Amino acid sequence: MIQNIDSLPSADAADYGYSSEKEAYLRRLKRIEGQVRGIARMVGEDAYCIDILTQVAAVNKALHAVSLGLLEEHIGHCVVNAAAASDEAGEAKVKEATDAIGRLLR
């Protein structure tokens, strides 16, 4: 079940790299949520399959953009800060980011 975006826990600005752009991410995710609802409505109304697939592709592209933004901010903030703290912490964050990239590419 998809959680309401408004009920997601918030973080202090110092915790995550995306914190300074949090409102922009929330706006984008709410827009994507609306697109997904629109797709469900299209299916319910027996819309033409190519039109539905076009909307699914748009949602995938929007989610990809959010993912890349979050990844860039994770590397620029979390990975850099961990690497400055210690080699081991930096290596762990690089591994974490690499694993996340692998999940995005599947």
Describe the protein in words.
The protein is mostly helical. Helix content is 75%, strand content 0%. The chain is built from three helices and no strands. The protein has helices at 22-44, 49-85, 87-105. Helix 1 (22-44) packs antiparallel against helix 2 (49-85) and helix 2 (49-85) runs antiparallel to helix 3 (87-105). 4% of the residues are buried.
Query: What quaternary form is this?
Result: single chain
End-to-end Cα distance, whole Å, is 22 Å
* Spatial extent as radius of gyration: 17 Å
Task: Please give the share of residues in helix.
Answer: over 70%
Low-confidence stretches: 1-13
List the helices and strands and how they pair.
Elements: H1 22-44, H2 49-85, H3 87-105
Helix pairs in contact: 1-2, 2-3
Tags for this model:
single chain; 0% strand; disordered N terminus; 106 residues
Précis, in short:
This protein is mainly alpha-helical and 106 residues long.
